[in-house]
Amino acid sequence: MRVTANHLTFLRIILLPLPCILLYGGPEAKLTALGIGSLLGLTDFLDGKLARRHGSTPLGAFLDPIADKIFIVALYTFLSHLGFMPIWVAAAIFVRELLVSSLRRKVPGALPVTWLAKMKTTIQMFVAALVVAVVTFSAYTVYFLLGAGAILLLGGILARLKGAKFLIVIFLSLTLPCLSFLSLKHLILVLSLVALGVTWLSALDYLKLALSQISLKDFLKIIPGALWPAIIIIFANKAGDFWILIPLVVVLIFLREGLLFFKRGKIQEIFPIVFFVLAVFSLLIEELIPAYLFAALVFLIFENVSLFMAARPALFKN
């Protein structure tokens, strides 16, 4: 059987819980999580190569970007819950991802994908792997940073970057080892801010174009929905034993956003606003958080199934 791009994308989604669970083990388990996570991240590059070689399918065109977002939001949710990176960094990254996805549905025509936007997911994965490595094996921080700098430089060469882009890669490659002089806490903060900065810088062109084509009123309507996963991840330190529902809910929110490209209406636009308001209310009365998470999970499961059934003809057409 020929391995297709869709096979690798499915593999990335199905195996994602494994490295997330292993992060809660000892150093050996975390090292295994780092290896598995890196291999899963590599499938993002490989499925792109296969899609270009054999041709893309409607299902593949839908799954690949969704798989990337699910990979990042799940990983960053677990990293923030473990205290490996600030929870507000993960929340801010989620806002950007959902905001741009929502704008893609609102803006007539397709928003162009910039070079930085293409690199964004790779940098997010790179930073996550580096954070896990330095937290788990802090005594070897300088070697990890040297290795990361070398990998970054090699990536720039293999990608045949030129001019300002390659100069940026060289600068980052030389800067990374210098960060070993920082304390672990400050190093993690700097690495997290790099991921956050690249994530939002890659959104500037989208925001500028979107705001020139839609009204401010329409833009403001999607803000509550974009903030929805950010509010939910803040529940992590307040949900007690129910915190495990948080990554499930956040992942389903992003899956829902992708499926809305195939079917959407006024009622679908109202749901995120309602659940955002309820999430804020639950923050004020923390005893409601478990009930809120359970209700959101049930709602998202049923709505995603409904949206998927409506999208099936488009996803599986020949």
Report on the structure:
With 318 residues, the chain is mainly alpha-helical. It has helices at residues 5-14, 17-22, 27-54, 58-82, 87-106, 115-136, 141-158, 163-178, 184-201, 204-213, 216-234, 245-259, 266-284, 289-315. Helix 4 (58-82) packs antiparallel against helix 12 (245-259). It starts with a helix and ends with a helix.
Pick out its properties.
318 residues, mainly alpha, 14 helices, 80% helix, CDP-alcohol phosphatidyltransferase, CDP-OH_PTrfase_TM_dom, CDP_ALCOHOL_P_TRANSF_CS, phospholipid biosynthesis, CDP-OH_P_trans
Please render the helix and strand layout as text.
Blueprint: H1 5-14, H2 17-22, H3 27-54, H4 58-82, H5 87-106, H6 115-136, H7 141-158, H8 163-178, H9 184-201, H10 204-213, H11 216-234, H12 245-259, H13 266-284, H14 289-315
Helix pairs in contact: 1-3, 1-4, 3-4, 3-6, 4-5, 4-6, 4-12, 5-9, 5-11, 6-7, 6-9, 7-8, 11-13, 12-14
Keywords: Lipid biosynthesis, Lipid metabolism, Membrane, Phospholipid biosynthesis, Phospholipid metabolism, Transferase, Transmembrane, Transmembrane helix
GO molecular function: phosphotransferase activity, for other substituted phosphate groups
Subcellular location: Membrane
